Amino acid sequence: MLTALFIRAGAVGGMLTPSLATGVATGASIALLVERLGCYASVPTLALIGGAAVLGISQRAPVFAAVFTAELTHPPPPIWGMLLLAAVGAHWVRLLAARRRRPAEPDRAQPHLKHRQRRLGYTAWLQ
To answer: What is the pTM of this model?
Structure first.
């Protein structure tokens, strides 16, 4: 929480460690919640998966996120695929969310520019 606040305020620093830490904390919290509900969830595994997912979103490089997370933690080989799947899935969710927030087309977004160009006399030499 404080990291996001400091970065939003303009502090200089990287996003690699805060992203990984945020994802790990979120994944561990989800695992603890699932266990609290009476099901089994591996806290370390879900923590790593959460770290890879958030890192894939923040770095916009899902393969890097999965490999980096695996390289830092040396998990068992079956978890490598889960890390890659989580990072790629989170990256796709980010892409779909960005597509939904696409800005309007330029013709419809800025109709006032034609009026301004005419008023300033740009219309003749712009065409």
So the answer is: 0.71
The residue behind tokens 């800005």 is: 103
d(CA 98, CA 89): 14
- Tens-binned pLDDT, residue by residue, of the chain (127 aa): 666 676 667 666 678 888 898 999 999 999 999 999 999 999 999 999 999 999 999 999 999 999 999 999 999 999 999 999 999 999 999 999 988 877 655 555 555 555 555 555 544 444 4
Taking 3-state DSSP, the helix, strand and coil percentages for the chain, each rounded to the nearest 5, stand at: 75, 0, 25
Contact 84, 63 (CB under 8 A): yes
Question: Cα–Cα distance between 13 and 86 in angstroms, integer?
Answer: 26
As a whole number of angstroms, the distance between CA 5 and CA 121 comes to 46
